[in-house]
Write a structure and sequence with these properties.
Distance between the termini: 40 Å
Order of helices and strands: EHEEEEEEHHHEEEEEH
Largest sheet: 12 strands, antiparallel
Shape: globular
Strand order of the largest sheet: 1-8-9-10-11-12-2-3-4-5-6-7
Number of helices: 5
Radius of gyration: 19 Å
Strand content: 35-45%
Helix content: 10-25%
Structural class: mainly beta
Length: 243
């Protein structure tokens, strides 16, 4: 019998407060973060945006954010924050040398402010690194006066089909309020996010709005300051920043 067909033990319920506290402690205690992900942002009947991201962050306020879209070049974006200024370049085509936009971080307040829709949704994980309660949904989540309900289950996640390796233990955290639901899957040892799925109401129907699969996640990597300086290659066009 293959691993894929072996009977799996049922998920075990875990106290959400313990898992969320440990997640917050690890993220708040890290000075830097680097991750790559594949993101799908979709509104049924309107659009579907497929992105690859490469995100590099360092406290208190430095960042390099790269968003590359598949089949949607106007969503390509490079944002760099050196701690005082935010530099932005959007490029609809290779070789686009349109003007770089620079804004004061003091004026915007947050590194993710003024990201155009739907990149603002794809930048959700970026904001979590600077949040005191990482991945706890915002007050607007689902509407209503009460906070979201929280459940956490620990289970064994099977490897992808065709991969001859053991599965891994994961925590599956589900936040629910009204018709909104966030499901966050974490590695049970490192607390590294593996998958975030957001379901909500849009256009009169409940649908999946966001799916982010994390392909690489490193807390506390050594990041040289040069990464957070706007370079001539960055200014020459979006293709100057590699993903």
């Amino acid at each position: 019998m293959s691993r894929a067909t072996e009977p799996q033990p049922p998920p075990r319920e875990v106290d959400p407060a313990i898992v969320l506290r440990e997640l917050a402690n690890r993220w708040r205690g890290a000075a830097s973060l680097e991750y790559r992900s594949e993101v799908v942002v979709s509104h049924a009947g309107e659009f579907r945006l497929d992105l690859r991201t490469h995100i590099i962050l360092r406290r208190p306020s430095r960042a390099r954010l790269v968003f590359r879209a598949k089949g949607f070049p106007e969503a390509n974006r490079l944002r760099v924050c050196d701690g005082r200024q935010i530099f932005d370049r959007m490029s609809g085509r290779v070789g686009d040398t349109s003007r770089t936009i620079t804004t004061s971080l003091a004026r915007t307040g947050r590194i993710t402010d003024n990201l155009s829709h739907p990149l603002d949704e794809a930048g959700y994980c970026v904001a979590q690194f600077f949040s005191p309660t990482p991945f706890v949904p915002p007050a607007s989540f689902g509407g209503g006066d009460l906070g979201p309900s929280k459940t956490v289950a620990r289970r064994r996640r099977q490897p992808p089909a065709g991969k001859n390796r053991a599965g891994r233990e994961v925590f599956e955290i589900v936040f629910t309020r009204g018709n909104s639901r966030d499901t966050l899957t974490l590695d049970a040892l490192s607390y590294a996010p593996l998958l975030l799925v957001r379901v909500g109401e849009h256009g009169g129907s409940v649908q999946e709005l966001l799916r982010e699969s994390f392909t690489e996640m490193r807390l506390n990597p050594l990041l040289p300051s040069a990464l957070f300086r706007w370079s001539p290659a960055d200014d020459a066009g979006y293709e100057g920043a590699s993903l």
